[in-house]
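Crash report, auto-generated. Payload:
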Amino acid sequence: MAMAERDPVSGKNTTGHEWDGIKELNSPLPRWWVIVFYLTVAWAVGYWIAYPSWPTLHTYAKGVLGYTSRGEVAQDIAKAKLAQAGWMAKLKTATVEQINTNPELREYAMAGGAVAFRENCAPCHQQGGAGAYGFPRLAADRWIWGGALAQIQTTITHGSRWAADPETHRMDMPRFGDDKVLNEDQISKVADYVVALYKAPDTANTLPGKAIFAEHCVACHGEKGVGNTEVGAPSLKTAVWLYSGTKEGIMAQVHSPKMGVMPAWGAKLDEAVIKELTVYVHSLGGGR
Amino acid sequence: MPGPPLLPNVTPGVRMTASPKKPQQTSLYAEHCKVQPRRVDGRFRTLKWIATGILLTIFFLGPWLRWSRGAGVPDQAILLDLAGRRGYFFSIEIWPQEVYYLTGILILGAVGLFLATSLWGRLWCGFTCIQTVFTDLFQWIEYRTEGDRSKRLSLDSGPWTSEKFTRKTIKIVLWLVVSFLTSATFLLYFSDAFVTTMELLHGSASSSFYSALFLIMASTFLLAGFAREQVCIYMCPWPRFQAAMVDEDSLIVTYEGWRGEPRGTHKRGQLFENRGHCIDCTMCVQVCPTGVDIRNGSQLACIGCALCIDACDQVMDKIGLPRGLISYDSSYNLAARGKGTATRRRPIRPRTLMYTGVLLLVVAVMGGTLVTRSRLEVDVLHERSPLYVTMSNGATRNGYTIKVLNMSREDQVYTLRTEGLPQASVDIIGYTATAATTVELPVKGDSVGTFRVYVTVPRGQLVNKTQELRFVLTEQRSGRSDSFPSIFAGSGE
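Recovered output after restart:
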């Protein structure tokens, strides 16, 4: 590297760097700029001392201020909880019917319910309660355990066939085929009848499956197949099906019924959150 | 390549002998020389005071004006309510989605500036620009505390006496007070003036308010107190391209070189024969707030304040020559007078006509939309999850979120019905008891009503997977209807 030399035109020194005969003048930064640069260095050193910065082998330098971003989040959450506390207390004392008819409470519950629904319910029931094969459609008006506010609240709190909860919905459908109560021919005939209940109600009465239905199914599903939410027997005179509304689907369900399980959310969620969820689910379009 | 080298140090070996000149320090930056304008009185100075007075009065009184809008709405005449997301200007209220009116005002400002510049040169820079107005105010304070140019020059070059210290301190304190009032007033346009002033006095305003207050105060203090003409020369883009709006018929500050040159000093009683009228008294340079010499012709740093005209006219009166050696005139007339041909005044030119046309067009469009703008806006959002729901009786139901923006001040009730699917019924869960063909939506004044509306069509009515559906909203009080398009989805069976 060449030595720095004085440039005769500008009177300044060069940096001593030379590229193909071109030399670079040494034009130092203005002093104030350099001072600001050193100030930022000093600031950085102060930052290392004040805040968590340097990694060590197994942990890291904690900093004298004791700041953590986790701690900041925790503070924010605590602050938000405090802001919500008044509302949550009101939700706790009010019944779901009271919440649903009070515009202010309802607005709050709907917002909270929407969030809680996305977190806890949407994995099975889908966004907006669209439902899926084996997971009830909450946006429609066919309810297994009832679509009134109190009924929805009970189902969310205690779940369905949830062993750990003594008050859970327990009713099971008999396994007509597996337990040899009905033979294949009888199952086929009763399935024909059930399909006709919705699709061709005028001809349903003439079908041979009617008698089988009257003997084995009416107790729970009702005389006209309208269902009974008390025992969790869904309506059969419907376009909405949990599994399948085709003849094959109905035969499969009569032969060896599938019975879904829903957790008892009362063990996991706060009472007020369940009330929020109740109001939200009720509003999805199927509430009665 | 033959020929001498352009720079002496290009060819090594030659440089030391071929360039016997002493090396000199060169800098890429212009040396800053503090401009100390002399005070002058006259026509243009009076005009400038009037403009400054009117503009400062408007600025400082603006936030205190009241305009009654009814309960629950701010009564400040001019208010940009950022938190409430509304803009108020007397009887006009702007919602966030109408922010293009602000864009329109910017366009008006730009085109207005073009028009004014092509007619009168740098009228804006010299008389109405915020930098000019506040610099003028600060210089007036400087004049009152430190005296006129010559006093200030000797004060600056002299030692730090107690008088110098006192005068400078008083000046700085007054500048700070004006900066504070300016900053506070500016912020009052963004929140209620009376409430905010009380908060400020009690020290209970938000920290963001104080930091904004400090920033604007500091920039006022620095820009009007110290940066001054450097803002115009180095920071402002406008002088760089305003020359494109000026032509030979635009009025500018001109020095009549044909009459003034050759210049030279003048003794009392001397005749003005075989010489120019300029006596080289440099008064025009001394009064210039940007420190330029107008005798070098129209230039970037000249802000067109015309104070040099006042100064020169006074000198011409004293030595008994006609006024107007420096005049506010077009470059065409300057040349015409030099040649002795007729002068002209041509305010109507293609470019002024064009700017006026654009200006009128923008005013007409903005005014037209402002007068006829609907105070009702509706957003219809078709729910996508689920896209549609089959009900147990086989009917198909679609969900919609309908936002009704009632931008009038009165509470309104709207009747909602649908068009396109004859059998469709409408209901809102938790609001209407049963599905019906119409539903009433009440929306409070100056607010947005959000409704989740369900539209149900009986089994067997749908032909396609999606069909058009229109929502018709009728304002019950006025009977005015608007319709908003959407779709209705189904299985298509």
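Post-recovery validation: The interface with chain A takes residues 7-9, 15-16, 19, 23-26, 383, 385-386, 389-394, 397, 399, 429-430, 452, 454, 459 of chain B (CB under 8 Å).
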